[in-house]
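Title: Comparing notes on inverse folding

I've been comparing how different people in this forum approach sequence design from structure. To keep things fair, I'm posting one structure and asking everyone to reply with a full sequence. Here's the target:
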């Protein structure tokens, strides 16, 4: 099997490559310098020449606040990019995996959000990612849309930011009124590859298990790393950001539960493994 990975230098792209090592597949890793997913002609030419059987789109404009002021760029990367890939994949008979986000919801739910709940994005990032999902569904019936949240892996992320801040401060303020589920790229990549192996098409939520606030997440990071810093809970209002954050972002992996089985781990278990890896 020939698998094209776009955004291969990002957190998830790196983990997917790692998990594909040793498998009997040909992997074509690309990032923006090899294949700019917003360039329709380049994408069509690339697919015609390389003829992948699966494309896993890990490319995105993930800087949530920057997306607010870079609306056009966010649409190009998060919506037009998946459109180009879905259509080019269709033309060569390939499947597409599109990674999406909890930001497609408004954060007002009172219980874990499942795949059948209605989207209502409140930020440029969320809106553009939802348009990406729609293009993929409309242009290629062989799609896997996998929504995740609070992702960390080999790249820049909240865990690394906290570790670096914690080493240089005695006290930190972290928001306590937004809840979700930290998710390791290891768990997400395992699920993505399992869906592809089983040809289990459709829209899936995929986060680790459990619920916490960013404050709880930070406290656990410092507990596991042994960094001595006082963490003070604060409200979203005390920490204003350009993009609106969902208050309640707990996704339920309902489609995984109903079909292939939910192989994700508890968020604390995955975080422990990640921090042990960072400390090696
Ligand atoms: N990170 C999270 O907390 C989170 C949460 C929910 C969902 N997700 C979704 O999960 C997926 C993976 O996220 P991630 O954290 O692994 O992302 P990431 O680390 O930011 O990686 C994204 C990659 O895409 C590349 N890219 C940007 N524009 C491109 C273009 N036009 N053509 C080709 N590649 C391009 C980036 O390159 P440059 O770095 O050079 O721009 C980067 O290497 C994304 O779909 C994201 O929306 C992430």
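Reply #1:
Here's my take.
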């Amino acid at each position: 099997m020939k698998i094209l990975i776009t955004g291969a230098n990002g957190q998830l792209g790196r983990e997917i490559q790692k998990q594909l090592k040793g498998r009997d597949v040909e992997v074509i890793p690309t990032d923006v310098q090899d294949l700019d997913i917003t360039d329709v002609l380049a994408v069509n030419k690339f697919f015609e020449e390389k003829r992948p059987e699966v494309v896993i789109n890990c490319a995105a404009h993930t800087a949530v606040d920057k997306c607010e002021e870079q609306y056009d760029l966010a649409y190009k990367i998060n919506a037009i990019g998946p459109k180009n890939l879905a259509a080019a994949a269709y033309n060569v008979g390939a499947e597409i995996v599109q990674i999406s986000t909890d930001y497609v919801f408004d954060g007002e739910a009172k219980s874990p959000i499942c795949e059948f709940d209605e989207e209502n994005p409140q930020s440029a990032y969320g809106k553009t990612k939802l348009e990406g999902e729609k293009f993929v569904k409309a242009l290629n019936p062989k799609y896997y849309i996998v929504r995740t949240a609070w992702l960390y892996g080999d790249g820049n992320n909240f865990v690394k930011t906290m570790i670096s801040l914690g080493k240089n401060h005695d006290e930190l303020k972290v928001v306590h009124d937004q809840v979700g589920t930290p998710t390791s790229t290891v768990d997400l990549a395992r699920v993505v590859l399992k869906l592809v192996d089983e040809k289990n098409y459709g829209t899936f939520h995929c986060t680790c298990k459990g619920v916490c606030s960013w404050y709880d997440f930070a406290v656990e990071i410092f507990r596991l790393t042994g960094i001595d810093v006082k963490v003070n809970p604060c409200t979203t209002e005390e920490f204003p950001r350009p993009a609106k954050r969902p208050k309640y972002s707990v996704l339920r992996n309902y489609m995984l539960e109903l079909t292939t089985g939910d192989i994700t781990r508890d968020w604390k278990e995955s975080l422990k493994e990640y921090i042990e890896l960072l400390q090696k």
